[in-house]
Amino acid sequence: LNKPDESAFYSDRADALKKVFNSKLIDKKRKIYTDGIGTDHTSLHANMFPLAFGLAPEKNIDRINEFIQSRGMACSVYGSQFLMEAVYDGNNADYGLKLLTSTEERSWYNMIRAGSTISMEAWDNKYKPNQDWNHAWGAVPANIIPRKLMGIEPLEPGFRKIRIKPQPATLACAEIKCPTIRGEVMVSFKNDPGKSFLLTVTIPANSTADVYLPLWSKSQNITMNGEKAAFTSAGTYAVIKNVGSGNHSFEVLNPR
């Protein structure tokens, strides 16, 4: 919007809020969030929201992930959107896949088991006998799978620049066609965790992408379109930046 003063003002306010929020609400011993000032009680909600909204310090994420995982799906269907955001943004893809494929009572599978053909307002009739069976907020996997599991998200307005960051966990293969204003983004992978990962992508015209690949070891080989690729490291990922439009294939081989 070409308003640099306002941008700086709100950035400063956001940084100040994050600092105060963490100083008041993180239990320094357990390294997880409490429910409020003056209590040592901790809940799923108190930890999933800060992680989903990017407030959690990097050094605390592993402990927060552990706590979140210990609580299961202890939230409503509406809350599950923020739980799944937190799980994948915390790079806990194994747990994300477990929740997506769960057959427990609090699961999307249970909506099918209950007889619904569209996502429901609550996990089961026993939680809300007067619920409706046509509720958009229950369709969390419809956005989590393309955005987080398959990893297609815009980095710039209108998908001018795209991040492609699959988080397959143990999923052996998947493919997706994701519509954008600039054309379809297509992603498919074949995955043998710790050994090999083959990713093919189609990037629409007038777009570029940063592509994230698993970084298992220093000895692994990474190729792009059959040739050795240069990349930067980002945690457990190898990142190939500014990949142009068109069809591309990436392969990760980890010799043992």
Outline of the structure:
The protein is an alpha+beta fold and about 260 residues long. The chain is built from 7 helices and 11 strands. α2 (about 45-50) crosses α3 and α2 (about 45-50) packs across α4 (about 80-90).
Care to describe what's here?
The protein is α+β, with helices and mostly antiparallel strands and 256 residues long. The chain contains seven helices and eleven strands. The strands form two sheets. It has a six-stranded antiparallel beta sheet, with no helix packed on it. A hairpin with a 3-residue loop joins β4 (183-192) and β5. The longest helix has 22 residues, at 4-25.
Total count of strands: 11
Radius of gyration: 20 Å
Order of adjacent strands in the largest pleated sheet: 3-4-5-11-7-8
Largest sheet geometry: 6 strands, antiparallel
Looking at this protein, list some descriptive labels.
single chain; 256 residues; alpha+beta; six-stranded antiparallel β-sheet; five-stranded mixed β-sheet; 11 strands
Layout of secondary structure:
Blueprint: H1 4-25, H2 44-52, H3 61-71, H4 80-89, H5 93-100, H6 108-113, H7 141-149, E1 152-154, E2 161-164, E3 173-180, E4 183-192, E5 196-203, E6 208-214, E7 221-224, E8 227-228, E9 232-234, E10 237-243, E11 246-253
Parallel strand pairs: 2-6
Antiparallel strand pairs: 1-2, 3-4, 4-5, 5-11, 6-10, 7-8, 7-11, 9-10
Helix pairs in contact: 2-3, 2-4
